[in-house]
Structures are given as structure tokens and as C-alpha cells.
Design brief:
alpha/beta; Nuclear Transport Factor 2, Chain: A; Rossmann fold; five-stranded antiparallel beta sheet; 17 strands; globular
């Protein structure tokens, strides 16, 4: 029984894994962090150049059987068959100064490699995997590579998407991800919500900026913050969304006074707070499958829905007790101070994260502004409820001007037609699907009207 269900997540299948364990002394191998970072880059380059024997020379002596050059060659080349030949390194990340994650785009999919070093600098593990599909814009749409937060500690690669031949100053929209480590396309299974939105809105003459989420690009470092209990939604989402707006404002094709924010799921829940921290400078907010509830309350609803589907018996009884225990933890965090939340968890989320996320009442923030808002929800969404969450938005914002509510029959959490197999579970995201065209049209119409 899972203790909670994330609103969004990414699943990657590992194609080849090689591991071993050793502790061999040598003064010639990289022992400090800077040296291992440099060595990790060189290992990646050696693979791309087909110099497997030189990689083998870096392997710990008692690991050479499992990490022989023949096996390294086989693992790398089979992964490249799935990804296409990878290009320059996009991200090089470490979580404990011994494990290094490398990401690069192939022609077809993202290529991933994880290198594990011993404290003495020898390689004891190598992992290869194929990540998300590389999307290609349709005819008439162009994309420009951009970097959000280029001068900061966590630069994020992204795309600016626009219609071919577009000139002048145009309206733009920033796409903000749901929970979990999402790439710029918000890839979930065989779906890519954000690339669908980017291409569809660009066709309507709107400039779109999307980027990799910090917890996706720098998962190791972010995980360390989470373990330390210091990660908040500021670092996870808000800072980068504001930096993306600043980036958009500097683009030749963008009117800096007409930049919108589109938040999906957790991004939708945070959109009002992002706008507030950006001094209410967004021209409008689009909230897709968000909730005015606290995140832990949404997670409770998700778990209650799962429990309701279980037959009476030992599994349901155990699940009930687990959920009840997590609810009590969440309430304790909610009713305590931020200092008291340190070291606590609820539904596997750190207490400080929960406390920070729930410190701002989104409905209250919205009611204090007159910024145009579009709130969208699918009736077949099993992760955020149309009956509860969407209805709460309508109740909480009943007297608010400049607010549009859109409910789409038969659409799921990704605003795609919900269909078998896997209907009503995350399994349906494994089927190729696309954001409904009416959704894209309504977003474009909202942006154009404001």
C-alpha cells in the first residue's frame, strides 16, 4: 500500500546496470570533488568516442569482471540504440560527491549515465538509461534554446517556442510544472503535456517558455536538501518561475507587460503565490488541475479514493491505519511552528516543506488582486477532484471579478481524454495521448482577451 500518490511523476526504465564494490588505494585516481567532476566528464567523452578500454582502466580492480570493456561497450551501445547518439552534457549532478549523474539529449530520447566512485577515486558502478522522448515542433513552429537562471547556481535548460515569422512584441506564457522531478515537456509515461501546450499556443501567436524543473535537473542536490529537511517550494519551484519571467521579459519577441503564468497541478496551486512574490506583475494566471486545499489534504483525498476501491480485508485495514497515522502527523505539522516542523514528515514529505507550502492561502491571495484568472479542471481527473477541489475554487472565489472557470468532461489530470486501458489510474499515462485541442484554444482565447 503506497502511503501517498504524487500529483505528477516521471518513470524511467534502466536499460543496463553495472555495479560492484571495492576500496582500492591509488594516488593517481581523482579523490576530491573537483577531480571527480572532471573525471566524470572525461568518462562520458570516452564513451562517446568509443574508447571503452580507457574507461576500463578507471574501474576498480575487483570490479573489472562486471565492468569489463566488452560489457561497457554492450551496455552503452544498446542504450544509444534507444536514445540516439547523445550530444553535449546538459547536466552533471552529484548527491554525495561519490555518485554522479549525467544527462544529455540523443536524437530520440534523453541519455542518462550514473557513475559511482569509491572514496579512492575508482569507478565501482555504471548505470545507463533512456529518459524522456525528444519532442520536435510541427511545421510552422520554431524553438530557441534558453537557460533560466543562467548566472545562478542552478541554471535550467529550456525552450522558447513561437510561430515561424512572428515579429513585434507578443504575449507570452511561462509553464510551471506539477509535483515531482519534471522535465521541460512535463513528460509522464508516454505523454508530454507541456510540449503539447507549447506547440498549440505558439500556433496561436503566443510565445511559450518551458524549462526543466530544478528537482529534475539537479535531483541529487535537491534530494540532499530534502533529507536535511530544508527544501521548500521556494527552491523547488517559485524562484525559477520568477527567473523564467525575467528571462521572457528580455526576449525580442515578448511584450514584458504581457507575460502570463500557467501552472499545472502543484504549479497551479503555487501560481497565485508566484505572482505575489513577483509583485503581481503577471498579466494573468492559468491554473490547470490545481487545488485551493493544502497539499497534504489533497494527498489524503487521493489515498481515501484508493482505500475506497479496496475490498474489505487485511490490506484495507492496514492501509487505513497507515493513512490515519500520516494524517495525524500532517495535522501536528500544520498546527505547529516551522521550527517544530523540522525533522518531521507526513506522507513522506518533510515537515518544513509542508509548512512552507501551506503558509500561503491561494484563495486569499487571489481575492486580494484583480489579475485575470482562468481555472481549468477535467471531470475524469482522479488526482485532483472536480467535485471537491474545483468546486472549492468556485466557492472561495465566488465574488471575485476577472475569474473564468472551465470544466472539461472526460479529461484527466493531464487534460487528455481519459480512456482505457488504465482509466482512472496512472497506468493510462503510459498510452500515447495529447492535450485536448479545446483546452489549448480556451487558454489561447483567455490570453488574447487579457
Amino acid at each position: 500500500m503506497k502511503k501517498f500518490t504524487k500529483l505528477l511523476g516521471i518513470s524511467l526504465s534502466v536499460l543496463f546496470v553495472f555495479t560492484a564494490c571495492t576500496n582500492t588505494n591509488s594516488s593517481s585516481m581523482p579523490k576530491d570533488l573537483a577531480a571527480r567532476l572532471t573525471d566524470a566528464k572525461s568518462v562520458y567523452n570516452l564513451f562517446s568516442e568509443g574508447k571503452y578500454s580507457e574507461v576500463e582502466a578507471k574501474i576498480a580492480e575487483d570490479s573489472k569482471d562486471s565492468l569489463s570493456q566488452d560489457k561497457l561497450k554492450e551496455g552503452y551501445e544498446q542504450t544509444v540504440q534507444s536514445t540516439g547518439i547523445p550530444g553535449e552534457i546538459k547536466y552533471l549532478d552529484t548527491d554525495n560527491n561519490l555518485t554522479f549523474s549525467i544527462r544529455a539529449d540523443g536524437d530520440k530520447k534523453e541519455f542518462r549515465m550514473i557513475i559511482v566512485y569509491s572514496k579512492d577515486g575508482y569507478i565501482t558502478g555504471l548505470y545507463f538509461s533512456a529518459g524522456a522522448d525528444i519532442t520536435t515542433p510541427p511545421a510552422g513552429i520554431e524553438e530557441k534554446d534558453v537557460i533560466v537562471g543562467q548566472d545562478g547556481n542552478f541554471p535550467l535548460r529550456g525552450k522558447m517556442t513561437y510561430k515561424t515569422g512572428l515579429t513585434g512584441k507578443n504575449k507570452a506564457v511561462i509553464l510551471v510544472h506539477g509535483s515531482g522531478p519534471n522535465d521541460k515537456n512535463e513528460t509522464v509515461g508516454s505523454t508530454s503535456t507541456f510540449s503539447d501546450l507549447a506547440y498549440g499556443l505558439a500556433e496561436q501567436g503566443i510565445v511559450v517558455i518551458r524549462y526543466d524543473k530544478r528537482t529534475y535537473a539537479y535531483s541529487g542536490q535537491m534530494q540532499q536538501l530534502q533529507i536535511a529537511g530544508t527544501l521548500t517550494v521556494e527552491e523547488e519551484t517559485i524562484i525559477d518561475a520568477i527567473l523564467a519571467k525575467e528571462l521572457a521579459a528580455k526576449q525580442e519577441l515578448v511584450d514584458p507587460n504581457k507575460i502570463f503564468i500557467l501552472g499545472h497541478s502543484l504549479g497551479g496551486m503555487l501560481a497565485p503565490r508566484i505572482d505575489k512574490e513577483a509583485n503581481s506583475s503577471f498579466a494573468g494566471l492559468i491554473i490547470m488541475a490545481g487545488s485551493p486545499q493544502k497539499l497534504w489534504e489533497v494527498i489524503v483525498d487521493q489515498n481515501e479514493a484508493i482505500l475506497a476501491k479496496l475490498a474489505d480485508g487485511a490490506q484495507k485495514t492496514l492501509g487505513r491505519s497507515q493513512v490515519d497515522a500520516e494524517i495525524e502527523k500532517a495535522k501536528k505539522i500544520d498546527n505547529g511552528t516551522k521550527e517544530e516542523a523540522k525533522g518531521q514528515t507526513a506522507f513522506t514529505l518533510p515537515g518544513v516543506y509542508i509548512k512552507d507550502l501551506d503558509s500561503v492561502d491561494a484563495s486569499q491571495v487571489l481575492n486580494e488582486t484583480t489579475t485575470p484568472v482562468l481555472i481549468m479542471q477535467g471531470s475524469a481527473d482522479f488526482q485532483v477532484s472536480a467535485k471537491k477541489d474545483f468546486a472549492l475554487y468556485k466557492t472561495n472565489l465566488a465574488n471575485r471579478a476577472n475569474t473564468v472557470f472551465k470544466l472539461y468532461q472526460g479529461l484527466n489530470h493531464l487534460f487528455m481524454v481519459s480512456k482505457d486501458p488504465g482509466k482512472g489510474t496512472t497506468a493510462e499515462y503510459n498510452n500515447a495521448n495529447n492535450v485536448d485541442k479545446q483546452v489549448i484554444k480556451d487558454i489561447a482565447d483567455f490570453i488574447k482577451a487579457n
